[in-house]
Structures are given as structure tokens and as C-alpha cells.
Design goal:
Helix content: 25-40%
Oligomer: single chain
Number of strands: 41
Distance between the termini: 69 Å
Strand order of the largest sheet: 14-13-10-11-12-15-24-22
Length: 681
């Protein structure tokens, strides 16, 4: 076995590989850019080597710099993680020339399957059902429009070397095909150094389901079930689960066997993923094969008990698989939510900055296990697991140079309903402050009827949130629980304030029992009666709830028993109450005396400033190009400029027909959130 492995990556996947290597007794080497000098993966590794400036194309994807780090440290193998150089055949060749093992598939498999155009042709020749499209190279936007019309709209424009949603656009007409072609080429060139684009039919109402395969260099290959990845935004996965709530055993077996056959056709040896789209009749079509470890691999590990990173390392060391297809049993249900540094209230635009607070829920272990690489049976009844794969820590920074993913939160339970409930509580207990993040949105998805039913497609987010995410409207029953909890918490805080020393003589602060709690536009009148074990809250209609909690003023997280049901609240202080976040809702909760509530109704509402004549930068980013000039008349929906942030190019469009009167930024300028890019008449 190897003595030392270099991880040619960063962030959570580097930390993930280090954990398994440590378990196997293998020393690790981290590489880092200027932006990652204090990163968690650098702290966790046994050694760390600096490789250049923050941009990935000057550090993490510069093969010569990574090779220098290997030579300096004497690493015998390299795990590439995902992204960056993970599917770069030239990197694999460079390692082979140096006599260093690549913890991934052979060069030939990378070249054949890593290139989407080639992989489609091979799949078709192998008898695999593929989506209609044009697999040749496309020279320019005019040709892209012509081909799109031949294939028939809607079409998907994809980067041949792409992945993770980069270099990918859906076009519904000629204009979108023309724009999408250029944006896809730009993203592909920046992210992968390869701007080749191909076009395929976009299948409506699809589900995205992928098969995890594992092969060795001795001709053995197995599949480890499927992952449902249909909850996507901008073709990037947000929520994954295993198994899929849609597949039956016959379809699972057919997809698995086909995936393994495809892998063997290219002499695949390592962990890999074959992606399919599946229609409502369970017909499946090959999309692509990712010749690397997938971001969402933890859900497969949780339901099978197989450490995929360990298996990759053992295969790279020349060992045959020690597990067979019969050893693979799907046990229970696992769900993964990707926590991103993005603001869901600003159409999910990237957010950067310092994590002033980062407190994940406590991780717990349960579920299926493999002992000595052999299946050991089911987990005990009622078992549950929480897993959080991350590459950040409290006080660390989220950089503009890399992918915005902060962590992958996973839960496992014997059934899907239990896994969803475990995820709800885990999300409510996840504390993140200092940056925008998508925790509220993830919580909303977990409570959405369509997700709960399991009847979702890849269009779920755009169909259910067509105007973007604007928060959650909680039902009255939940509001009542939160209101009662807030009243009890406010009373505790008021009692503490009465005990402050140094008060004026003959001045005593009295805490009443009657309160009016206002949240989400609803007022609840109530009376709070406290005792040593908690509080009884009586509403104006006569109903009562019993509140018990050990919350004290200043705590950021409150776990409250409401009539013996657990309610987890993130708590912040605002004037006259709390900012409470729970189940995807972000609430300003005001707790007032009846007289204060009466006076509050007389206060005028604050009017938001008028920004309708300004184009504001929606995220910290770099201006790629400005498409208009001063004096131009622009139409609604017309492209005004492009902003690049976290490896994604975003086109900003006019919201109405107007005239450009001033432009304050040019291509190459770096802007902060809400900087004024241009002004209108």
C-alpha cells in the first residue's frame, strides 16, 4: 500500500480524502493557493505545498506546479478529487511518466468517457440508448442555431469537457441558442481549458438518476445502486438521495448492468458514475460518464457501507475488488443537501465573505457496515445518522475564486420519511452567519409536497419557484408554536433584565404576563404563566401549549419542546423581539405588551428606496463584458452585461424598455454587491 498520497484538490473533497487516508494509515499532502493558505484541508494534511495565486488556472489546474509538489514531497499516488484535474488525461499521463499512481481510471477511459462527444458515440455503438443530438464539433453561433433547429427546440448546449453545470445552457429559441453558445464556450474555456461545445435534445419532464460503478484492473466490475439527482438549479445538483423513490428493482438492475457493461467496454478501473435521464415510463437514456468521484458519493456510502475513496485507493494500488455484486445491499435511505455560499433571496447569486459563525449539527454514526469488506446486515431499528462533509471552519473565508459549496449535509435513516425528518432537524440546527447561504431554501424543499411525494423532475426548482425564492409562508399551526416559544423566551430575557445591578433607587422593572406576538403579518394575543419546569402559554381563543427549554438569552440556537414536540429555532436579537429562522422561514418576531402593540399599529411602514433606474451588481464579481453603450435604447430582457463569479458567468438583463444614461463599469472591473453598473432614464 502507498505510504503517501497527494490530494490534487481543495475544500471539502480534499478533507474527505484525508479522512480515509488517515484511517488507512497513509500520510497525506495538501496543495494550496494564496487564497487557501489557512484552509481546513491544509491544516488536516501531514504536509502542504504552496502552488500559486488564487485563480485555479494559475494554481490548481497547472499540471507542472502539481508535479513539482509531488516531486518535493515524494508522494507515491495522487487523488484528484472532483473538478480541476480529475478528468484531465494529460495529468494522468504526466503522473504515469513520473511513476506516480493516479487514484482514478486509466488514461484511455478518461479520454473516451471524459469527453462527452466521444462517450456518446461509444455508448451508441455499445447499444446504449442515447438522447438525440449533434455530437460533432460546432464552429460558431450561427452553426449552433442551425443545428438547434435541426434537433428541435428545446436543446441543451454542453461543454464537451464540462461538469458540475459549467458550460451548460438550455435554449428554447434562436436567440437563446446564440447567447448560450458563446456563454458556454467562455465558461468551458475558463473552467476546463477546452471550449468545445455540442448540442443535444433537451428531454422535458426528465429525472436525473445516476449509477455508481466500481471496477478494478482485473476485469471485475460492480454497481452500488443509484442516486436520484433531480433537484437541480441551473443544471447543478442541489439535493441528492439514494436510492431513488422512482425506480423499481427491475429498472435498477437494468441500469446497473448497463452501466457496468459500458465501464468494462473502456477497461474502466476505479469509482465512476454513469448518468442517465429517465422518463415517466422508466425509459432511461445515457447522458455521460463521470470518470471520477462524484460530489454526492456520501449517500451511496451511507446506504451500502462501502468507503468509495478507500476502494479507489486500493484499486489504484493494483488490488482486486474484495466485494462482489452479491455483497451490495441497499440499506435504508440517505439524503444529501448541498450548502452553498449563495443568497436565495437574490436569485441564488454567489456570496463571499467571512464565516462569522459556522456550527454544523452534531455528526452521528449509524447504518449499514462492511466489516473486513463483507456485508454485516441491517442497522438497528430506529437508528439514524448525520454526516457533514466540509472544508471550512468558523472564522474562515469563502473565496470568490472557487466553487461556492460550503458543505454537504447528509442524513441516513431506515426509511425515506425518517431520513427527510432527520434532514429537517439537521438543517434547522445548522448555524451559518456572515455570508448569504441557501439553508432556508433547502429547508423549504424538504417540506415541499412534491419532494415529499418523490414525484419530482429536473424542472422542480424552476417550476415551483419561477420568481425565485422569496422565503416560506409557515402555516398558522407552526406560527402558533413559534409565537408561544418567542413569548416564553422573551419573558426569560425580561426576567434577566430585572436582575441587572446598579439600578436607580425606588425603580423596579416589572414583568407582566400578557403579550402580543407579531410574526408573518399575524398577531397572537397570549398570557404566559411560568413555573420551574417551563411555561404554559394561553392564547386569546383559550387554547394552551406547554413550553419547555433550557434556552438562555444570547444563545443562537434554541431547542424547544412545544407540547412535547421538538422545535429547533435559530435565534437572533432585534429591537423588541427576535429574528427567528425555522423550516426555511426567516421571521422578525416582535413581542410587545398590549399597549406597545396598540401603538405599533400607528407606526408608518418604511418605504424601500427606488432602484428601478439603476443596474446594481447582484454579487461580488468581475465584469466580463458590457453589451450596451450610453444612449442605447434597451428592450425588456435584453442583455446588458455579463458578470463572472465563482466560475459562473451571469448575464444581467433589462427589466423594462428604457434608455442607458450612464455606464459606471467596464470589462475587467471587480465590483462588490450593489455597486451601480449603469443608470437608466
Amino acid at each position: 500500500m502507498f505510504d503517501k498520497i497527494l490530494i490534487a484538490n481543495r475544500g471539502e473533497i480534499a478533507c474527505r480524502v484525508i479522512k480515509t487516508a488517515r484511517k488507512m494509515g497513509i500520510k497525506t499532502v495538501a496543495i494550496y493557493s494564496d487564497a487557501d493558505k489557512q484552509a481546513l484541508h491544509v491544516q488536516m494534511a501531514d504536509e502542504a505545498v504552496h502552488i500559486g495565486p488564487p485563480p485555479a488556472n494559475q494554481s490548481y489546474i497547472v499540471i507542472d506546479k502539481v508535479m513539482d509538489a509531488i516531486r518535493k514531497t515524494g508522494a507515491q499516488a495522487v487523488h484528484p478529487g472532483y473538478g480541476f484535474l480529475s478528468e484531465n488525461s494529460k495529468f494522468a499521463e504526466a503522473l504515469a511518466a513520473e511513476g506516480v499512481a493516479f487514484v482514478g481510471p486509466p488514461v484511455g477511459a478518461i479520454e473516451k468517457m471524459g469527453d462527452k462527444i466521444t462517450s456518446k458515440k461509444i455508448a451508441k455503438e455499445a447499444g446504449v440508448s442515447t438522447v438525440p443530438g449533434y455530437m460533432g464539433l460546432i464552429e460558431d453561433a450561427d452553426e449552433a442555431v442551425k443545428i438547434s433547429n435541426e434537433v428541435g427546440y428545446p436543446v441543451m448546449l454542453k461543454a464537451s469537457a464540462g461538469g458540475g453545470g459549467k458550460g451548460m445552457r438550455i435554449a428554447w429559441n434562436d436567440e437563446e441558442a446564440r447567447e448560450g453558445f458563446q456563454s458556454s464556450k467562455n465558461e468551458a474555456a475558463n473552467s476546463f481549458g477546452d471550449d468545445r461545445i455540442f448540442i443535444e435534445k433537451f428531454v422535458t419532464q426528465p429525472r436525473h438518476i445516476e449509477i455508481q460503478v466500481l471496477c478494478d484492473s482485473h476485469g471485475n466490475g460492480i454497481y452500488l445502486g443509484e442516486r436520484e439527482c433531480s433537484i437541480q438549479r441551473r443544471q447543478q445538483k442541489v439535493v441528492e438521495e439514494a436510492p431513488s423513490p422512482f425506480l423499481d428493482e427491475a429498472t435498477r438492475k437494468a441500469m446497473g448492468e448497463q452501466a457496468v457493461a459500458l465501464a468494462k467496454a473502456v477497461d474502466y478501473a476505479s469509482a465512476g458514475t454513469v448518468e442517465f435521464i429517465v422518463d415517466g415510463d422508466r425509459n432511461f437514456y445515457f447522458l455521460e460518464m463521470n470518470t471520477r468521484l462524484q460530489v454526492e458519493h456520501p449517500v451511496t456510502e451511507l446506504i451500502t457501507g462501502v468507503d468509495l475513496v478507500e476502494q479507489m485507493i486500493r484499486v489504484a494500488n493494483g488490488e482486486p475488488l474484495s466485494i462482489s455484486q452479491n455483497d451490495i445491499k441497499l440499506n435504508g435511505w440517505a439524503i444529501e443537501n448541498r450548502l452553498y455560499a449563495e443568497d436565495p433571496y437574490r436569485n441564488f447569486l454567489p456570496s463571499i465573505g467571512r464565516l462569522t459563525r459556522y456550527r454544523p449539527p452534531m455528526e452521528t454514526a449509524a447504518g449499514p457496515l462492511l466489516e473486513n469488506d463483507k456485508w454485516q446486515g441491517d442497522a438497528p431499528a430506529g437508528a439514524m445518522a448525520v454526516r457533514n462533509d466540509t472544508g471550512v471552519y468558523e472564522g474562515g473565508e469563502i473565496s470568490m475564486y472557487y466553487d461556492p459549496m460550503i458543505a454537504k449535509l447528509c442524513t441516513w435513516a431506515p426509511t425515506r420519511d425518517e431520513a427527510i425528518e432527520a434532514m429537517r432537524n439537521a438543517l434547522d440546527g445548522f448555524e451559518v452567519e456572515g455570508i448569504g447561504h441557501n439553508l432556508p431554501f433547502l429547508a423549504a424543499v424538504m417540506d415541499h409536497p412534491i419532494f415529499i411525494s418523490g414525484d419530482m423532475t429536473t424542472a422542480f426548482i424552476e417550476e415551483q419557484y419561477p420568481e425565485g425564492f422569496e422565503g416560506v409562508e409557515l402555516p398558522e399551526a407552526t406560527l402558533r408554536k413559534i409565537a408561544a416559544s418567542a413569548a416564553a423566551m422573551h419573558r426569560v430575557a425580561e426576567i434577566r433584565r430585572t436582575r441587572v445591578s446598579g439600578r436607580m433607587d425606588n425603580h423596579e422593572r416589572r414583568v407582566g404576563s400578557k403579550w402580543v406576538v407579531s410574526l408573518q403579518g399575524v398577531d397572537f394575543e397570549m398570557k404566559v404563566k411560568a413555573d420551574k419546569k417551563g411555561s404554559t402559554v394561553k392564547f386569546a381563543d383559550g387554547t394552551k401549549v406547554r413550553i419547555a427549554s433550557d434556552w438562555t438569552p444570547g444563545d443562537k440556537l434554541a431547542t424547544i419542546s412545544v407540547d412535547k414536540e421538538t422545535l429547533v429555532l435559530k435565534v437572533g436579537k432585534i429591537s423588541g423581539g427576535f429574528r427567528i429562522r425555522s423550516r426555511g422561514a426567516d421571521l422578525n418576531v416582535h413581542v410587545r405588551t398590549p399597549r406597545q402593540a396598540e401603538l405599533a399599529k400607528l407606526m408608518p411602514e418604511k418605504v424601500a428606496p427606488d432602484t428601478s433606474k439603476l443596474l446594481l451588481c447582484p454579487m461580488p464579481g468581475l465584469i466580463v463584458k458590457v453589451d450596451v453603450e450610453v444612449g442605447d435604447t434597451v428592450q425588456e430582457g435584453q442583455a446588458l452585461c455579463s458578470v463572472e463569479a465563482m466560475k459562473m458567468e451571469n448575464i444581467l438583463r433589462a427589466e423594462k424598455t428604457t434608455v442607458v444614461t450612464k455606464i459606471n463599469a467596464a470589462a475587467g472591473n471587480s465590483l462588490a454587491v450593489d455597486d451601480v453598473i449603469m443608470e437608466f432614464e
